[in-house]
Here is the input.
Amino acid sequence: MTFDLDPDGFVGGLDVGYNWQVNALVFGVEAEIAYNFTDESSVVFVGENSNGIVDDDHASVEYGFQGALAGRLGFAADRVLLYAKGGLAIAEIEQSAGDLDFGGVVDPSDLASFSKTLLGYVVGGGIEFAFSDSLSTFVEYNYSDFENTSVTNLDGNNVRFSNSLNVVKAGINFHF
Here is the structure.
């Protein structure tokens, strides 16, 4: 059984960083911490077994804290900065998959779940516009990929999870 979970939601957080500018080239480093308020679950109707019992399978994913430590490389033109970034990512991920019997009751012998903090990488890019020397706004896209995980339930079934995030961010930066 294959589930395609693609949760949508809101991520809120803070970032801190430092940039160095040499002519039009900008080099930087940033750290961010956020809470990811996204989750999704899905139920797939499998059918009736030979005993006439309806069989459904389910899977769910829920995210928590996430963060990144990344380097930035950009090109500044007047008050606009175009940049790319890449580095280390971390995320708290909770996932489960199993069998629902008798109209929605979880079969404990057929449940596989985990809650882990996973390490991975982040790559992305964005555009930043400076209103003044101390205030700017930005829009950024990040792709984070984390290690694949797997768990085995009491029935011996192995469930494999592929873990990645696509995040579009917008915000305001205060420069000191």
Observations:
- The mean pLDDT is 85.
- The chain is about 0% helix and 80% strand.
- The beta strands are 11-22, 25-36, 39-48, 54-77, 80-101, 105-130, 135-152, 158-174.
